[in-house]
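Field reference: sequence -> structure
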Amino acid sequence: MNKKQIKKTLLHDWHLEHGANMAMFGGYEMPLWYPSGAKREHLAVLTGAGMFDTSHMAVIMVEGPGTLDLFQACFTKDLEACIGKGKTPLVPGRCAYGAFLDDLGHVRDDAIVSQIAPEMYMIVVNAGMGGQIARYLKDQAGGSDIEIHDLTDGVGKMDIQGPMSARILAKIIREPEAVFDRMVYFSFKGFFDDDSPLAGAVRLLDGTPVMLSRTGYTGEFGFEIFINPDNIERAWKMALEAGKNFELTVCGLAARDSLRAGAVLPLSHQDIGPWPFINNPWSFAIPFNNDRTGFTKKFIGDQALKGIEEPEHTYPFAGFDMRKVSPDDSTVVTDSDSAEIGVVLTCVTDMAIGRVEGKIYSVASPDKPDGFNPKGLSCGFIRVTKKLSGGDTVELKDGRRTIKVAIVDDIRPDRTARRAIKNML
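Structure field:
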C-alpha cells in the first residue's frame, strides 16, 4: 500500500507517544499492543477494564421514508422481529447484528444497525467498508427519497470494556444514574451530533454530546462511545484519568482479536466472507422460522442459502494448551482418520482460560478451582466439509506444528456482556 493511502485514527499520535507497536489493519495504522503486552491487556478486560481506539470502524447514516423496507431487503436480520424472546420489532434506542449478503449468499460485510428514530438508522461496518456498503445501499434504494451518508472518518469511536467500565464512565458523564437506567445489552442512548435533537441524553462532564452503546466486541460487559472527532482525544484522556483506580488498561488489536475469538464472535472477511453465510455459530443473524425450514422474510441471498447442496460448516474450537497455528493457505484441518477436511479461519490464544479435568474455566469463573492460574488455550474457528459435533477432536497443521483441538459449542465461559448494569456498579 502506498504511504499516501495509509490512514491514521485521530489518536494515532497518542499511540506512538505511549509506545504502541503499530501495524496495518483495514487500511489504517493501528496499535497491536502497548508496552504492557497483549496478555495483560486481554486479562484487564476480564478483571478491570480495557480501552480501545476503534475509530477505524465506519459509520453510515440512513434515513427517510422506506428505510425499514430497504433494510428488510438488504440485511439478514429481521428488524420486524429481533428484540427479546418475543421477537418484537427494532425500536429507537435498540441495536441489531446481521450481515449484508450478495446474491450467492456470500458476506459483503457484517454490521450493527441502530435505530435512531422511526425512519433513521445508523450502521457500523468494518474498517474500509463504509464506502462500499453505502454505495450498495444507494444502488438498492434506487430512485427513492432515502438519504444515505457515509461518515467514514467523520465519527470518533472508543470502547471501554470490562467489569469496571460502568464505574469509570460514571466519573466522566453527567447524570450517570439516569443514563444507565434500563440500558440493556444491544441498546444505546444519546447521539454524537450536537445539532441533532437526539443529542443531550448523554453528555460528558464538559458538555460534549456522545452516543453510548452496549454492543461489545469482547464478550464482556462494556460500552462504546461515539463522539465528534474533535473531542475524542479529550474524552480518551478523561477516561484514562477516571480509570486510574479501576485498573483501566489501553488495549490494541491483538487483545481485541483474542477476546472476540474467545467470545465466539467473527472477524469479517476472515471468519465470514466470500462463502455462504450459513451453518456457522452466528445463526442468530439469519431470520429462520421456528422449524428452520425457511425464513421469516425475503432478503438478498436468501434463495442461495436455501439451495446449498453440499454445505460447509464453520465451527468454534478450543485447544488443550496455548500453542496455536498460523491461519494461511497452507494451514489445514484433518480429522481422526488424518483426512484433510478444511481450513483454519482464526487461531489465537485466549489467555484467560484453561482446562481443569477436561472442563474450561475462565479467570472470571465464579466456580474456578482454588489456585486456578491459566496459561491460556488456543481457540478460533475452522471451516470444514464434514459435519462435526461438540467434543470431536481434529488436528490443525501449518508448516511448523500440529495441534489437537476440540470442537466446542462455546469457548470462554462466564462472559459478562449481558449482565445488568445495576450488578456492575
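Note: The mean pLDDT is 96.
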